[in-house]
């Protein structure tokens, strides 16, 4: 006889829904991404691979993570090195953070250590301690977008 699935708890958050204290961004639907959520009271140490979106509500310690999006909830802690496209901090990051796009530090967010980002937004109350560097080099274009610019120029008509 098969076991029935685990019952829904009254305060459970459906997959892809907004989590308390963690605003969502709308680039791609949350349920379309490979998402790892480290819940409150949970600690993870080691390597995290193939997660497009990392949501930290507990604690994560990792030597290096590459992801598209990093969200650290109020009360969440990330220690280590991470490189992402976009990051939003309502909790704490202690280590090295490289953000190719935008970094948002919410009013409860704390950034300790070293960070590099292209765009920065810090809400009133957000804290930055350590070294912060702005990335000023242009973002590399996708090969398909660069192809038309590389087309050969049209020949000039010859005049007799």
TrEMBL record:
Q: Where is this region: Disordered?
A: 1-32, 137-160
Compositionally skewed regions (Low complexity) per UniProt: 138-160
Q: Where is the signal peptide?
A: none
InterPro entries for this protein? BacA/B
Pfam families on file:
Bactofilin
What does the similarity note say? Belongs to the bactofilin family.
PANTHER family, alphabetized: HYPOTHETICAL CYTOSOLIC PROTEIN, POLYMER-FORMING CYTOSKELETAL PROTEIN
* Full protein name: Polymer-forming cytoskeletal protein
